[in-house]
Amino acid sequence: MQKIVSLAKRRGFVFLSSEIYGGFGSCYDFGPLGAEMKNNVKNAWRKEMTRAQEDIVLLDAAILMSPKIWEASGHLSAGFADELVECKKCHHRFRKDFLKGDKCPDCGGETTLPRKFNLMMKTFVGPLEEKSSETYLRAETCQGIYVNFNNVLNSMRLKIPFGVAQIGKAFRNEITPGNFIFRTREFEQMEMQWFCRPETADKFFEYWLKTRLEWYFNLGIKKENIRTREVQKGDLAHYAKRAVDIEYKFPFGWQEIEGIHNRGDWDLSNHAKYSGQDLRYSDEASGEKYFPYIIETSVGADRSFLTFFVDAYAEIKGGRTKTTEATKEEEIMLKLHKDLAPVKIAVLPLVKNKPELVKQAKEVYQLLKPHFATQYDDAGSIGRRYRRQDEIGTLLAITVDFDTSKKKDVTLRDRDSMKQERVKIKDLLKTIRERMEN
Ligand code: GAP
After folding, report:
1. Which CATH number is 349's domain given?
2. Same domain, 367 and 276
3. Which domain holds residue 159?
4. For residue 245, which atom of ligand 1 is closest to its CA?
5. Cα(171) to centroid of ligand 1, in Å?
6. What pLDDT does 320 receive?
7. 350 and 301 in one domain?
8. Mean pLDDT rounded to a whole number for the chain
9. 112 alpha carbon to ligand 1 midpoint, in Å?
10. What pTM value is reported for the model?
11. Strand extents, DSSP E, 221-354
């Protein structure tokens, strides 16, 4: 894991937040390549949910909402609290369920009895810091979907079953954040709420579980690194009738990356009760009025990012690029799926001291840049530059060499097969587009 964290920092994927001040609260920033890649992850999710699937619309609700929402949702009660223990000696605090024994893992000291610690992050809205202006940063994005149920239904004239998908920030005052960006206090969620007739909920649960698993496999996650786990009754979240976790085999063990939940009518019926609004669905055909059941798919964008990053990470002992001067060194590769790679193409002039060749390389760069995430790199030997691109998962490297001006072609090198082919500059866009589509 150390190597992965170090690559993420060195190559501009993930930085510690507020690093020059020593870091802050286990928060992280996504660097230039990380921001590109995280957007690619979110786009892949949005494309899957709203294009590949039927009857799912998007929503982008506010982070700050009425505090009544969190009363109705159950998040302000014991249901959304972890058990916290404190070391009597060093005063470090831990989640009780993360401790292996009763002693402090940091100094071996005795720990206090557990007490409940609510994970909601409190803040004030407006100029007065008093009880009446208190609210919370949302702890899950889906509540914005439930409270907009009637708005979405009426404005889009939807019929059950249908879904609402949303991507956005969520905040939890985690007692024990950690494992890099796996568990943080500020993170992004990608959640879809599927509203259906109660008697169809079980069927849709299976459908969404299968569909979500396929999403990971289609984006290149190795089958052996994914498994599902039925959450036992006693461990279910306060809103869930049933939950299955999709787990990934991280270097620090099997961990949840996504939850599929049957939330029943918990959310809509509670919001109806607390708000006094009728949130039942009217079935025009049968004349029935009922609270739909909700099947939820919920995944962290940051956790998804980490999953794809870890799964793509490969070390090639002895090196594979024969043109490098240091073939004995270990080569690092990010075998990212083409839709997720932050840089699609690198344009590499063979040398940087021949003006004609540099001019042509810049023209190729300008030709491709509006269409694909493209980098121009002229620093160091060509072998070293290939390796630098492999390390960030760049799909194609284009070399502009001494033949280019005569033949009007370039070398196209494929990241995975390392095959090189000559392509005419005039055919370059078409050839690359074809590669990206397949
Ligand atoms: N709306 C349901 C819900 O929020 P959850 O199991 O608490 O369910 C869903 O969270 C997903 O959100 C998790 O599977 C994980 O991917 C992500 N997530 C939750 N807490 C997180 C944290 N502290 N840091 C990063 N991601 C987190």
Report:
1. 3.40.50.800
2. no
3. 2-71+123-309
4. 14
5. 10
6. 66
7. no
8. 94
9. 28
10. 0.94
11. 226-230, 242-250, 253-264, 281-282, 289-290, 293-300, 313-316, 331-334, 345-349
Amino acid at 9: K
Q: pLDDT digit string (tens) for 283-299? A: 998 999 999 999 999 99
Q: What is the domain-level CATH number for residue 274? A: 3.30.930.10
Number of structural domains the chain divides into: 3
Percent of the chain with pLDDT over 70: 97
Q: Whose CA is nearest to atom 2 of ligand 1?
A: 298
Low-confidence ranges of the chain (pLDDT < 70): 318-329
Tokens standing for residue 229: 């786990």
Closest residue CA from atom 18 of ligand 1: 300
Is 331 part of any domain?
no
Same domain, 165 and 274: yes
For residue 327, the model assigns a pLDDT of 54
Instruction: Please tell me the distance between residue 412's alpha carbon and the centre of ligand 1 in angstroms.
Output: 41
Do 257 and 383 belong to one domain? no
Residues 240 and 138 in one domain: yes
What's the CA-to-centroid distance between 178 and ligand 1, angstroms?
14
Please tell me if the CB atom of residue 183 comes closer than 6 angstroms to any atom of ligand 1: yes
CA–CA gap between residue 405 and residue 364 (Å, rounded): 12
Spatial strand order in the sheet of 374-376: 374-376, 345-349, 396-400, 409-414, 420-424
Task: Tell me whether strands 253-264 and 242-250 are parallel, antiparallel or unpaired.
Answer: antiparallel
